[in-house]
Amino acid sequence: MRNLFILLLLVVSPYALAAKANSFKVDQVRVDRNGKGYVQFVNNLVESRPSCSTHLKQLAFDVNTPGGQAIFSLALAAKASNKKIWAVGTGTCDVYGVVESWSWGVIRD
Question: In this structure, are strands 20-31 and 84-89 parallel, antiparallel, or unpaired?
Fold first, then answer.
């Protein structure tokens, strides 16, 4: 039982201190010439966010990576179709120093 608890703690903890976009619409998508960008939602992110993040409505990504390209496509598709996104941050600010980085997300109705 103790081992199961420790395993559960290890699996859940990376997202425990991450912000979430809980079915929010995309306000804007920004990409800088260095390939770093962010998605800004119409609402503030919910749950806890890391202390490095000072932007309450944004999750960052890097289009120089395959994952960042997928996030960029997902965000543009959601914006163009006026759909909502459910997304979770990483709990770190390794793309933009003051914006939490994007971990995963899906488009919702």
Answer: antiparallel
